[in-house]
Amino acid sequence: MGRMWHSLLLGQWKDLFFWPPVEELIQSRQKEYYDALGKADKNTDSAVFVELMLEIIYDTLKEMSYLDRSTGQVSDHDTDQDKSVNRLIAVLGDEEMSAADIMKKLGLSHRPTFRKNYLSPALESGLVERTIPDKPNSKNQKYRLVK
Predict the structure, then answer these.
(1) What percent of the chain has pLDDT over 90?
(2) Which of 2, 22, 25, 114 has the least CB density, counted as fewest CB within 10 Å?
(3) How high is the mean pLDDT of the chain?
(4) Residue 95 dihedral angles phi and psi, to the nearest 5°
């Protein structure tokens, strides 16, 4: 499944929306999702569907600890490293890519900076994985988002 509308639209507002697993929450609430779509279609009013999607997105953010627990608001504490990792994740999408291809799409040319600021934090946080985990230095190594 490609990037869903919420990831693309909301991701332009805040980087953190490029990669939350909202799709998984939708799948876990599939009946409710389709019921809301049906009601919206029947009533020619999308409010019930939009409310459900906002609730699903809110639940995703809570689950991922992106909400300030005291206010319930989206946290604005993205570090430069968070932004770098989010950019890498947005570039990867549903593809498997080599480090060179990722760097090219990000407009980067300095491999040590790419590894330090983008790839290593993404790997360490468990958001990205190697396609050949037992041979991290393989010339055929590619990277993908963790499902």
Answers:
(1) 34
(2) 2
(3) 80
(4) -95, 165
